[in-house]
């Protein structure tokens, strides 16, 4: 997506770093605030034990370079930042038709992890509709747990900032829409 006139374009690259020493996968988000500008980054650890289907889909999307050209299109301060719509219509259509089933119902079994600050969760439009859209929690959004939004990853380092800091460096980093690319 092109930046609006007068706004610097921001880039995001996702690098998959698999660790053979543990079951966790780490994905590095590398953000270029403007073409040629210094990069900022944060790391996300994927926890398959929290939401196995969501974790597997995220890793699959990263490996397939789905996030190349994807922008954070919805950012709500203190709540979340949402991304996951690819500008390549053929690629988006192919993944949109591949919804994954919900994890266990929050009524049948309590969630394995809560929507706490810094956790990554799939967005959905109802039962069994998770495809490619994700959101990153900026605050404690535990109310989403009972609505079947199980987190599958969390920010492990980089721009997350202090837990007490409501306007974190991460939130400031992605406070406006920007373009993305796979690095």
From TrEMBL:
Keywords carried by this UniProt record: Isomerase, Rotamase, Signal
InterPro entries: Cyclophilin-like_dom_sf, Cyclophilin-type_PPIase_dom, E_coli_cyclophilin_A-like
Keyword Isomerase: yes
Protein name per UniProt: Peptidyl-prolyl cis-trans isomerase
EC number: 5.2.1.8
Broad EC category: isomerase
Entry superkingdom: Eukaryota
């Amino acid at each position: 997506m092109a930046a609006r006139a007068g706004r610097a374009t921001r880039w995001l690259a996702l690098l998959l770093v698999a660790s053979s020493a543990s079951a966790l996968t780490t994905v590095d988000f590398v953000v270029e605030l403007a073409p040629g500008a210094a990069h900022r980054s944060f790391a996300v650890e994927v926890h398959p034990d929290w939401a196995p289907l969501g974790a597997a889909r995220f890793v699959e999307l990263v490996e397939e370079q789905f996030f190349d050209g994807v922008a954070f299109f919805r950012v709500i301060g203190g709540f979340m930042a949402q991304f996951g719509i690819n500008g390549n219509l053929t690629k988006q259509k192919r993944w949109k038709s591949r919804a994954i089933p919900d994890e266990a119902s929050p009524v049948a079994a309590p969630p394995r992890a809560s929507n706490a600050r810094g956790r990554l969760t799939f967005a959905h439009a109802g039962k069994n509709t998770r495809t490619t859209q994700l959101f990153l929690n900026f605050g404690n959004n535990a109310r989403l747990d009972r609505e079947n939004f199980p987190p599958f990853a969390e920010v492990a380092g980089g721009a997350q900032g202090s837990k007490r800091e409501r306007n974190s460096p991460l939130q400031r980093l992605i406070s406006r829409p920007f373009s993305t690319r796979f690095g």
